[in-house]
Request: fold
Amino acid sequence: MRLTILTTGGTIDKTYDEFQGSLRNVHTVLDFILGSLRIPDLFIRHVEVMHKDSLDMTDEDREVISRAVCDAAPTSDGIVILHGTDTLADTGEHLFMTCTDLEIPVILTGAMRPYEFRDTDAVQNVTEALLASRLLDDGIYVVMHNRVLKFPGVKKDRQARTFVRKS
Reply:
């Protein structure tokens, strides 16, 4: 399987800067996550799109992500996007509206806690997204916390700390 993974930043990619005492989006942690998994028959092309907290993303950033999806689609059997959870639903809705002719699954995932934290959900969510990319039909999805939700109509439930269908 040929998979493209687009990284955009977000909590999943935040690393601790001990000099400033802060969590920041400086580089991706994707190689560390993938290095801990057994994925022998998966060819992954990694494209770093940006390194942003999703709260700082603009409509122009979502358009950049949309173009990256469209550019990757012809040579991919699936696309996984690592994204910050705060505005992941906004990007999913944007992709649903702009990427209407894709014939592959596009999966957004992220983490509520950074990869570097002991109680992170990053590895679980990336693993679920990789598996989902093999099983799902074409469409735009969020895959996290043992859930698969297809756009449109997805929102972040801050109290439950996961994603749900809009009521």
